Amino acid sequence: MLVSLHEILNDAKKNKYAVGFFNAVDVEQARAVINTAEELRSPIIVGTAEVLLPATPLNVVAEYLIPMARKARVPVCIHFDHGLSFERCIQAIRLGFTSIMYDCSMETYEGNIEKVAEMVRICHSVGITVEGELGHVGDNEGSGKLKNPSDYFTDPVTAEDFVKCTGVDALAVAVGNAHGEYKLPPKLDFERITAISEKTGIPLVLHGGSGLSDNDFHEAIKRGVCKVNIFTDIDRAGKEGIEIGLAAGAASLSALMPYMLDAMRTVVRNKIELFGSANRA
Predict the structure, then answer these.
(1) C-alpha count within 13 angstroms, C-beta hemisphere, residue 131
(2) CA–CA distance from 136 to each of 108, 109, 115, 224 (Å)?
């Protein structure tokens, strides 16, 4: 069933588990995510991000994801992640996405509040939930890599004000996490997570989940994280599945698909069980 982020994360916060968000840039990734969630009776969040639109246009993602969500036997939220422009977020709303992340984290604090609050007003008027970001979650490499990531960590007191001023339903936090593949083991600031959760009272979101340890996840969830973003792990798994299929002698794309699906399903299954969302649907 197609639901909003609010309908999924409220129970996660109440019962101290987290729900995985998986980008799905094609039908096979979407099948791997949603079918595995059905198998484990887990709510799930699936969608795409603005930086991934060169791979698959937003309207195409909506064409396969939204019908799949409606037919699913578990709650499925269709989420547009890291919307960087007002226009793209509005497009996602019109296409039927049920959750929007409007990422204005590199704006001034006042600019972030103003833009996100406007998006909240628009989305809430049509029953759509909004995720904001305070501080900034950088990348592990490339142009998004931050020289001093701690300079961009989320401040708990400022987070309280941000949530009150914007009305966001969930807040992405910067606490030592980063997008992409970690070169060295990350060190999350768990005390900061606790403080932000206590100050804001809303579900927190951990971006850059691929590469964190099981203990990192358990501790972060215990302290208030209710949504964890995963893409690198499932994307890499699909590639590895294809490599396994090629080594086994698969000679066509259709013959490779079962290997790719199986590898991605394994990642999704492991994350669902790790986050504690199995049998919560």
Answers:
(1) 35
(2) 11, 11, 16, 18
Element (H, E) at 154: none
CATH architecture for the domain at 2-235: Alpha-Beta Barrel (3.20)
- Alpha carbon distance 5, 69 (integer Å): 13
In a 3-state reduction of DSSP, which class is residue 207? coil
Domain boundaries, given as residue ranges, for the chain: 2-235
15-63 confidence digits (pLDDT tens): 999 999 999 999 999 999 999 999 999 999 999 999 999 999 999 999 9
CA distance 113 to 158: 11
Q: How far apart are CA 229 and CA 19, in angstroms?
A: 9
User: To 10 degrees, what angle do helices 109-125 and 86-95 make?
Assistant: 20
User: Which tokens hold the place of 275?
Assistant: 């986050």
pLDDT, tens digit, 9 for 90 and up, residues 198-256: 999 999 999 876 667 888 899 999 999 999 999 989 999 999 999 999 999 998 999 99
Q: Tell me the C-alpha to C-alpha distance, in Å, between residue 174 and each of 37, 148, 153.
A: 27, 12, 5
Go through 192-219 and write b for each residue having 16 or more CB atoms within 10 A of its CB, e for each that does not: bbbbbbebbebbbbbbbbbbbeeebbeb
The residues annotated as belonging to the active site are: 81
Closest CA relative to residue 209, chosen from 78, 6, 45: 45
Output the pTM of the full model: 0.91
Q: Enumerate residues 6+ apart whose C-beta is below 8 A from 154.
A: 134, 135, 171, 173, 174, 175, 192, 196
Q: What is the dihedral of CA 274, 181, 65, 163, to 10 degrees?
A: 80
